[in-house]
Amino acid sequence: MALEHAILVSLLEKPGSGYELSRRFERSIGYFWTATHQQIYRVLKRMEQDGWIDVRDVPQQGRPDKKEYSVTGPGRAALSGWLHEPVEPESVRHDLAVKIRGAVFDDPAALIREVERHRQAHADRLTHYLAGEQRDFTGAGAEAPLDAGQELQHVVLRGGIAYERMTIAWLDDVLATLHRLRPAP
Amino acid sequence: MALEHAILVSLLEKPGSGYELSRRFERSIGYFWTATHQQIYRVLKRMEQDGWIDVRDVPQQGRPDKKEYSVTGPGRAALSGWLHEPVEPESVRHDLAVKIRGAVFDDPAALIREVERHRQAHADRLTHYLAGEQRDFTGAGAEAPLDAGQELQHVVLRGGIAYERMTIAWLDDVLATLHRLRPAP
DNA sequence: CTTGTCTATGCAACGAGTTGCATAGCAAGA
DNA sequence: TCTTGCTATGCAACTCGTTGCATAGACAAG
């Protein structure tokens, strides 16, 4: 399970509340690990019971109070332990691939709009990633050399960019294949 | 949920038992959708109750008897329905990306072996995919034109190949970054 | 002053997925 | 004969993840 560890990383980068974490999971961390606020609140509770994180009530003005979590020594140790143990390489899961293989039992051409929709979604993500790269890593490049944390964040982002580019190219291949099949007998 | 639908596709391609399905999920279908035999047996039971599939007891010689499942009319209709409704584009989930971002709170160099291990696993998968492509799609290309089902299987396989190539290139990028960070103060 | 939106936290129920274990037929080799 | 290994099916218990719902403070627009 990596949700706990993803939360530890995020809280080490900057302490925050469950709500703030759920926002972060919509952007940077969420590029490679998604989580809803339900999951986050539940896991935060367990992590607190396990002594991995501390809570602090933070009164706020103009908005409801929040609970700010920060990583404890044992939490940091738990992350270290996990970093040193191997994880299995992920297997991909693509609904769309199932659909493409299933299309032969229905109408392949009916999939074209769906594939185009996916292509658009991936193109949007790519644009978003590229904007983030421009903002966080390219702009200050010449004058302020990046520290190790930024280098590592950047290489992860480059992975996201490569993934989206590859996916878009593949979806173009899929579309070409579907169009080629259309005028068949 | 796509497991039901992946099973429908696989059973439409060729009827089979739960055991056979679990073997298929280790190879072709499993390239983009994994499932253990536990999941498969449980889902097969539900699908049978829902009338999506039929069972037939098949006595065998030299091995235990099996139950062969095949798709019914309602099952085929359920697949059709699913093919026509949109699915959300997947979000990636990468333990490794979490580890890379977390490495800055530990020792980045300690990740090198882990990343190399992943690189090897992806290189193995790529070799496997390429062998499958050679066997199923390239060999008979000139004389026997592919039918629609084969074309669609091929484009899905090309997706797997593109994914592995992209991942290997990215892991090389990650390794270069980790090596670059090593001689830092 | 009501409605909508954003922040902020949480419960309950369900479905999906994993892990460990159990059983049993049959075959091949030590 | 005993062990190992492959085929074949399944239960039980657990964790992970999703969905729908509920509450509540603050603010802004109509």
Automatic annotation (TrEMBL), chains A, B:
InterPro entries per the UniProt record, alphabetical: Tscrpt_reg_PadR_C (IPR018309), Tscrpt_reg_PadR_N (IPR005149), WH-like_DNA-bd_sf (IPR036388), WH_DNA-bd_sf (IPR036390)
Domain Transcription regulator PadR N-terminal: 7-79
Name of a matching Pfam family: PadR
Origin superkingdom: Bacteria
Transcription regulator PadR C-terminal domain sequence ranges: 92-178
Protein name per Swiss-Prot or TrEMBL: PadR family transcriptional regulator
